[in-house]
Write a structure and sequence with these properties.
Layout lengths: L4 E7 L3 H10 L2 H8 L4 H8 L6 H18 L5 H8 L3 H14 L1 H17 L1 E3 L5 E3 L8 H37 L5 E6 L2 E7 L3 H13 L12
Antiparallel strand pairs: 1-5, 2-3, 4-5
Helix pairs in contact: 1-7, 1-8, 3-4, 5-6, 6-7, 7-8, 8-9
Length: 223
């Protein structure tokens, strides 16, 4: 940053998991986000059976990995490698997860079927992802396309939301006559270079415009 300027970072908290809750309409996951709960702690309790504070501390770490891995339609072998457990244990964890979050399991089952019918999936806001391999005779190609079908509406919508937020933030900077400049997007994060005397106003604008960029069934939270 130039002298007298500072870099301000604002990023969405657990955007993909919030979208997983919104898209799947899983009641357990929706409730957790709507009540401002720690989704990883809830998963640790419901899926891993954590009861005491000590159990929760350890189980939450695993639950965080599982929560994000599920959004990529991970299979037992992949989860076993990430978490450091046997494939059989990973298979049970995934089964327990789907028994807890039944809406997520339903989504995982239904999306590949719809993708095979149409040959593509789309984000909430209409961006299309063609899936030429979804009906391929080769099982590996077909499974890879199925994983893309499951993940794209989540990741694609997350990308759409960040782009919408960028437009709103830039418009608000211009409306307020600020000298601050939006530098770049890094995944779910926006970086702004701001004169020090504008930094608090910029931080407020980022949080307000990013959290109100779209309306979902769960709140958007920006740090």
């Amino acid at each position: 940053a130039e002298k007298g300027h500072k870099i301000i970072s604002a990023d969405y908290s657990q955007l993909e998991l919030r979208l997983l809750a919104h898209i799947t309409q899983d009641p357990v996951m929706l409730e957790a986000f709507q009540n401002g709960e720690d989704i990883h702690a809830r998963t640790a309790r419901l899926v891993f059976g954590a009861r005491t504070d000590e159990e929760l501390k350890e189980a939450r770490r695993f639950a965080k990995i599982v929560n994000f891995a599920i959004a990529y339609a991970i299979e037992p072998w992949g989860l076993s490698q990430r978490v450091g457990i046997s494939r059989q244990e990973a298979k049970k964890v995934i089964a327990d997860y789907y028994n807890t979050y039944k809406g997520v399991r339903r989504y995982m089952e239904e999306i590949p079927v719809r993708a095979r019918e149409h040959g593509y999936v789309r984000s909430i806001y209409g961006r299309i992802r063609p899936l030429p391999g979804i009906n391929d005779r080769n099982a590996n190609i077909r499974k890879a396309a199925e994983r893309e079908a499951i993940n794209m509406p989540i990741q694609g919508t997350a990308s759409d939301i960040v782009k919408i937020a960028m437009l709103h933030v830039e418009q608000e900077f211009k409306r307020a006559g600020l000298k601050s400049q939006l530098l770049m997007q890094v995944h779910d994060e926006l970086l702004v270079e701001a004169p020090v005397d504008e930094s608090q106003q910029v931080a407020d604008i980022l949080k307000r415009e990013m959290e109100s960029a779209v309306t979902l069934d769960v709140p958007l939270v920006v740090d």
